[in-house]
Amino acid sequence: MSDAAPLFSTQEYLWRVTRLQDHMKTEQLDGLLLTTPADIFYVTGFLTRFWESPARPWFILIPATGRPIAVIPSIGAALMGQSWLDDIRTWDAPDPTDDGVSLLVDAIAETIPMKGSLGVPMGLETHLRMPLADFARVGNAIKPRNIVDGTTTVQRVREIKSETQIAKIRATCEIADRVFARVPEFAASGKPLDQVFRDFQIALLQEGADWVSYVAGSAGQGGYGDVISPATAQPLAKGDVLMLDTGAVKDGYFCDFDRNYSVGPPSSAVQRAQDALFMATELALNTLRPGMTAADLYGIMTKALGAAGATVGGGRFGHGLGITLTEWPSFTAKDTTPLREGMVLTLEPGVEVSAGKFLVHEENIVLRANGPELLSTRAPQTLPELG
Amino acid sequence: MSDAAPLFSTQEYLWRVTRLQDHMKTEQLDGLLLTTPADIFYVTGFLTRFWESPARPWFILIPATGRPIAVIPSIGAALMGQSWLDDIRTWDAPDPTDDGVSLLVDAIAETIPMKGSLGVPMGLETHLRMPLADFARVGNAIKPRNIVDGTTTVQRVREIKSETQIAKIRATCEIADRVFARVPEFAASGKPLDQVFRDFQIALLQEGADWVSYVAGSAGQGGYGDVISPATAQPLAKGDVLMLDTGAVKDGYFCDFDRNYSVGPPSSAVQRAQDALFMATELALNTLRPGMTAADLYGIMTKALGAAGATVGGGRFGHGLGITLTEWPSFTAKDTTPLREGMVLTLEPGVEVSAGKFLVHEENIVLRANGPELLSTRAPQTLPELG
């Protein structure tokens, strides 16, 4: 039945695809093949939870000029038909004899010259969402055309957000902000952590999330040891630090930030760790500028934590954000990606409070010409207390 | 902090891996490389929503004999450390210079003889969850070892569920059953569909889902046109058929079934369509036996719909179910996969009520020696009415 208007104007999609095509020209790509939910959503606005089914591959082919071509399972024809695309080719998937391969090969053959190059994202943080054997079939069938790495084109374009995209991410952050303010309503000493996780998700839906693609968190005495495990039924207890983190989704755009709470008053070690994280984040907010690299920002935060006497936690200290929970770059010592105006990023420093006990602090920002603009409401320096 | 017990006994995981290794022997595989959330969960019990971040690859290598080896980002070490695995190798990911490639190559070199074959799922309904360029690097580095298709091994083993797995799927179905009974509490004429979707997800969490990975649905006068679009704010109206479908998750196991509701009394055309769907499903429930193929079952249902004078809807008429929303096989005319005892399946016939207006009916079953056992509570033949 859906009569949803496309989420963005055709002008916005044209802007996106023109930038991809400009990069393709620089990278000498005569076409670009996209297969993942995020890449396809980016260029078409095709938004559905149906990706949860791994049964069917979906293809978008971006030619050197002109609009993208969709080669998709027929079950998606109605929804893709609402997009700005005018060339939508479908087959009945899954088809064990030919699951879109011939259709895709035909589209590539029509679009890319015989000695041309087809870009496919194949670098860090990418994957190909189609069967490997079918990808090999496509590669053979389109010879002598080459398949080459299209990662740079996709990443350099997608990482700069338009104002309309920034507004979407801000709206999702505002949903999470409202929910983090409500956490004391449903989290307190004695409440099992798995029930807190359920109530947190319920509150995100109540406050306007379309769905909740990611919830993480942890609770432990004087800090937590692991932030990716599912919640257990263990009740919260006085002295616990509770951390909740979410990637809620509204109109296909994610937030990704966490908040920490102390069950009863925090220990002095916990508050010192929190102070160090707060100050490292303040420094990042005050000094980050376009032209720095991801590694520069990581250096700023680790140095600040060290100066505050804190033990720097492992892992990255933030990343890109947008139409997936995490996007490139990564704030690590090794990532030399330049930070540019229009990037939406998370600042996520972590410290080790004591052996195996951590605290992680996270904010969402957009990088402007003169520095970061917060998309999340700044966390308080003093840990909020739960009863 | 998590101190969750592994979801299943070591005996269960040994049963799974031994069956994989038996198939590997038949298929002449000296090792099997797994990269997807479901395949890794299947052999290790590693359950986390952290897969939502596409940043990092994760690897499980199954040798010809003995326990699997985990080669994973260090952020997963604590959680994987709770599994039955004893060989867990980690690196700080994402690493732009070497994102687990060297570690994985070493593990393969230790495990697989020089002229051996490494299986990787590359067939229908699979994909490789790691960067393609890194996969090529691994392939080159492990030469002269071969990389070959491991799809059959994974699919023939995973599709037969143990009783403990069946109990998990049944528990998730029971959550959805309770929520479908509550739909009249939150869906009625005048209620915007997007709010119905939110309340449906809230109810699933309230009834015990850990998270809600999939919600779909639609509403339309005398049937619906599209079942994969996000909900719009359009209010339900008298004469609409509302369909809600969910893949809720509990302990990592999915349900996947829908229910239809009529807003006010259904038209005779809608009730006739519903009758045809109900009877086709009854026939499948009464006649399906191990030894039939997926195509046989599709034939039974399409024939029953035709005999009832209904117009057969497009798309498949059901599929496997378990640790992803949809698993192989597919009930289509082309899928000749044998149906075997212990398979968990959805029966999902669809009809076209009038031009572009559909009705889809779905149940979840486990196939026993003497036929299907329902895991979902059988839908009523008469469409429930909403106010």
SS content category of chain A: alpha+beta
Q: pLDDT below 50 for ≥5 consecutive residues: which ranges of chain A?
A: none
Of all protein chain pairs, which has the greatest interface, and how many residues does each chain bring to it?
A-B, 86 and 87 residues
Q: What's the overall average pLDDT of chain A, rounded?
A: 97
Strand tally of chain A is 19
The CATH top-level class label of the largest domain in chain A: Alpha Beta
What's the CATH superfamily of the largest domain in chain A, by name? Creatinase/methionine aminopeptidase superfamily
Summary tags:
Creatine Amidinohydrolase, alpha+beta, homodimer, EC 3.4.-.- (chains A, B), 387 residues, Creatine Amidinohydrolase, Chain A, domain 1, aminopeptidase activity (chains A, B), Putative peptidase (chains A, B), Creatin/AminoP/Spt16_N (chains A, B), hydrolase (chains A, B)
Report on the architecture of this protein.
Chains A, B: This is Putative peptidase. Chains A, B: It comes from Octadecabacter temperatus. Chains A, B: GO terms for molecular function: aminopeptidase activity; metalloexopeptidase activity. The structure is a homodimer of 387-residue chains. The model of chain A has no long low-confidence stretch (mean pLDDT 97). In chain A, the strands form four sheets. In chain A, strands 4-3-2-1-5-6 form a six-stranded mixed beta sheet. In chain A, strands 7, 8, 9, 10 and 19 form a five-stranded mixed beta sheet that branches. Helix content of chain A is 34%, strand content 24%. With 387 residues, chain A is α+β, with helices and mostly antiparallel strands. Chain A folds into two domains: 10-158, 3-Layer(aba) Sandwich (Creatine Amidinohydrolase, Chain A, domain 1), CATH 3.40.350; 163-386, Creatinase/methionine aminopeptidase superfamily (Creatine Amidinohydrolase). In chain A, strand 2 (59-63) and strand 3 form a beta hairpin.
